[in-house]
Specification:
- It is a single chain.
- The protein is globular and about 40 Å long.
- A seven-stranded mixed sheet has the order 5-4-8-7-6-10-11, with helices on one face.
- It is α+β, with helices and mostly antiparallel strands.
- It has helices at residues 92-108, 124-131, 154-159, 189-196, and strands at residues 6-7, 25-30, 36-41, 63-66, 71-73, 81-87, 113-119, 141-144, 163-164, 166-170, 176-181.
Length: 205
């Protein structure tokens, strides 16, 4: 069975995906949507793993760099619904989720919904190379966390993220409405979260 998400990779490995056996211990985690997904914990970690921001929490502001070098902040999209997705070029489940994210963006963009996909735990070179290829025509707003693997990285420090893809649906009030961890084919958790905010996908605005 293919893992539903990937862990933050360290500097010594090409990727750090969920594995069975010695490296990782699988558990079943119930997400806010009520849908169960396979998750993983680091059994030998000395530090407690962070917990993703819960529903109702204020979404912290941050600055990221777009594919053309501009700086944007989450607060630039105040009064919009924001689908904030953390991903990486080396993360297979992330790459598989991006076409679905683009379909959502095309469906809901005219209704005051912004899809912001932030590349994390990665290099600027990898990011620019990746988004200039197959994803250059996507309606998703791509950006990269300039901190990369540094101590000021955004996903873990601000949003409690330890595995990707990790998606936060943020309401117009700036609070987290839903959290979606991982991706599987046919996943509709983002659409269900949007429906809870009065946005139905697949319909003309």
């Amino acid at each position: 069975m293919r893992p539903a998400w990937s862990f933050k990779r360290d500097r010594m490995s090409r990727t750090k995906k969920i594995r069975t056996g010695r490296a990782f211990l699988f558990v079943i985690a119930a997400l806010a949507s009520g849908t169960l997904r396979a998750a993983a914990l680091r059994p030998q970690s000395k530090e407690a793993e962070p917990q993703p921001l819960a529903r109702g929490a204020a979404a912290p502001d941050f600055a990221v760099e777009t594919r053309d070098g501009r700086t944007v902040r989450l607060s630039d999209f105040r009064r919009h619904i924001v689908i904030l997705d953390f991903w990486a070029t080396w993360c297979e489940p992330c790459r598989e989720s991006l076409p679905h994210l683009d379909r959502v963006a095309r469906s809901v963009g005219p209704r005051g919904v912004v899809v912001l996909a932030v590349c994390v735990w990665d290099s600027l070179k990898n990011f620019r190379s990746w988004v200039s290829g197959d994803f250059k025509d996507y309606r998703v707003r791509f950006a990269v966390d300039p901190a990369g693997h540094g101590s000021q990285e955004i996903p873990r420090r601000l949003y409690g993220v330890n595995g990707i893809p990790a998606t936060f649906i943020i309401g117009r009030n700036g609070n987290v409405a839903a959290t979606v961890i991982g991706y599987d084919d046919g996943d509709t958790r983002i659409e269900k979260a949007l429906a809870g905010l009065g946005i139905k996908t697949g319909e003309r605005p």
